[in-house]
Specification:
The protein is an alpha+beta fold. It contains 17 helices and 7 strands. It has 2 domains: 210 residues, Hypothetical protein, domain 2 (Endonuclease III, domain 1, Orthogonal Bundle), CATH 1.10.340; 157 residues, Nucleoside Triphosphate Pyrophosphohydrolase, CATH 3.90.79.10. The longest helix is centred in the last third of the chain and has 18 residues. The chain binds a DNA duplex (11 and 11 nucleotides) through helix 2, helix 3, helix 6, helix 8 and helix 9. GO terms for molecular function: hydrolase activity, acting on glycosyl bonds.
DNA sequence: AAACCGGGGGT
DNA sequence: ACCCCAGGTTT
């Protein structure tokens, strides 16, 4: 039977070809869990150094559960999808409270953990506990859609659910861990999206997609909407006096995009479409000056500094960064600037900080702001030498 | 079902 | 420039 052939050949190939990955060196459910969360929408080579640093800092689930959230975010800095880190820590706290610190060997209990969906449930149950639970990710859907010539849209939840049923029938007795990992390994190393290596594929002989010459058309996947462009004006405010040598950063709200991350102050240029992109430097700087003054900080513009871009799944940021200089309140008063709003907005400023380059090690920044800040501090050091 | 949620690497 | 990646949560 074709299905039996598939599982047997696949397992034999996996034993021969599997990569030596850090999380394959033990069966600690906590390590499996951390690796699976990091691997969501992220390549193996990217994850490996993050995994080592994370486990070194949080060797046990309990240490993760009890850590400050800021420490967790800092270790996740640059990986993206930061809610993964927040949910992983919440999940660890759930395990401490509900399961005495041991990841439960129970499908429903695992699925109830924060940040653990159908895929990760299957990955933990099978890889850590060798339980026959499907773990259907993008790799698995690509392999199955080709091998069984399934033309359903893999963007639909129903397609994934159908493939889970199929996988349940394919898992060999007692081999759930190896079988699920073998499927993903095949998708990662052989049955790749663009140029599948069919000639070295262990299951090529019975691959219906290949036999039909359809391997490059599969899987069928509906297109995602392109990210909407946003034009933003960014303030790189240099401190003066007591804050000399420091730059103003602020923390984002605890929910939503880049939750709790730190950044340079910036704002959306929300003119009519097309106009935002063409706002003059003077207009863009004026907006920042007004916004900062509203928070009780008086500044004067020094001029354009650099441009940067940052793409999310659904938004594309076009950033124009302006250097600005902190103005002492007394100077601002002499210049006729009114600042009675300052006291009322103390709490607004509570989420702002003046930082040095060394302070960057204490706060997590999205990549684009790391790039800007590092360039600025680099050039500043050069100037002083 | 669709939108929201980062960043990097392959092609 | 576009696609894809060991997805999950929210609406």
């Amino acid at each position: 039977m074709v299905k039996r052939f598939f599982s047997t050949e696949l397992l034999e190939w996996y034993e021969r070809s599997k990569r030596d990955l850090p999380w394959r060196r033990h069966r600690d459910p906590y390590y499996i869990w951390v690796s699976e969360i990091m691997l969501q929408q992220t390549r193996v080579d990217t994850v490996i150094p993050y995994f080592h640093r994370f486990i070194e800092r949080f060797p046990t689930l309990q240490e993760l559960a009890e850590a400050p959230e800021a420490d967790v975010l800092k270790l996740w800095e640059g990986l993206g999808y930061y809610s993964r880190a927040r949910n992983l820590q919440r999940g660890a706290q759930q395990v401490m409270e509900l399961h005495g610190g041991q990841v439960p060997n129970d499908k429903l209990a695992v699925a109830a953990l924060k940040g653990v969906g159908p895929y990760t449930t299957g990955a933990i149950m099978s890889i850590a506990f060798n339980q026959p639970v499907p773990a259907v990710d993008g790799n698995v859907m690509r392999v199955l859609s080709r091998y069984f010539l399934i033309e359903d849209d893999i963007m639909k939840n129903a397609t994934r659910a159908g493939m889970e049923v199929l996988i349940e029938q394919l898992i060999p007795e007692g081999r759930a861990s190896d079988f699920n990992q073998a499927l993903m390994e095949l998708g990662a190393l052989v049955c790749t999206p663009k140029s599948p290596h069919c000639l070295t594929c262990p299951v090529m002989m019975h691959c219906e997609g290949r036999l039909a010459g359809m391997e490059l058309q599969l899987p069928v996947k509906s297109k995602a909407k392109p990210p909407r462009p946003e034009f933003r004006t960014v303030a790189l405010v240099e401190g003066t006096g007591r804050e000399a040598g420091r730059v103003l950063v602020r923390q984002r709200p605890a929910a939503g995009l880049l939750a709790s991350m730190w950044e340079l102050p910036h704002m959306l240029l929300q003119e009519a479409p097309g106009v935002a992109a063409e706002a003059t430097d003077e207009q863009a700087m004026d907006l920042l000056i007004q916004e900062l003054a509203f928070s009780g900080l008086y500044t004067r513009p020094l001029g354009p500094y650099m441009e940067a871009e940052h793409t999310f799944s659904h938004i594309h940021w076009n950033l124009r960064v302006y250097r600005m200089e902190q103005l002492a309140a007394s100077v601002a008063a002499e210049a006729g600037v009114r600042y009675e709003a300052a006291a009322a907005l103390e709490e607004n400023m509570a989420r702002s900080l003046w930082i040095t380059r060394e302070d960057m090690a204490l706060h997590a920044f999205p990549k684009v702001f790391l790039t800007i800040l590092n360039r600025y501090f680099d050039e500043r050091e050069q100037t002083y030498k």
